[in-house]
Design a protein that fits this description.
Blueprint: E1 3-5, E2 15-18, H1 22-27, E3 34-35, H2 38-48, E4 54-58, H3 63-74, E5 78-83
Parallel strand pairs: 1-5, 2-3, 2-4, 4-5
Helix pairs in contact: 2-3
Length: about 90
């Protein structure tokens, strides 16, 4: 599984998707990120994603983003987990 720190991410790399629930996302949205909640993304990935593009997946604690990246990698998508440095 590919993983980068949020400080390394740049929007030119690909779309940043925050898989947090809507309420969590609204409290602390990362500039430039798109909110697609975890369940919605996993149920609709074929309609929402393109296998020819790169996606960067994040969430507040890293648990859902890790699961999403693992599943989408299995299905052949170019996905990278983005982690927040909590120091």
């Amino acid at each position: 599984m590919k993983r980068i720190d949020l400080n390394v991410y740049d929007k030119s790399m690909g779309l940043l998707i925050d898989v947090s629930d809507e309420l969590t996302f609204k409290k602390d949205p990362y500039p430039g990120s798109v909110n697609i909640p975890y369940e919605k993304l996993l149920l609709n990935y074929k309609q929402l994603l393109n296998k020819d593009k790169k996606y960067y997946i994040m969430c507040n604690k890293g648990i859902h983003s890790r699961k999403v990246v693992s599943i989408l990698e299995f299905y052949g998508y170019d996905v990278t987990q983005v982690t927040k440095n909590t120091d």
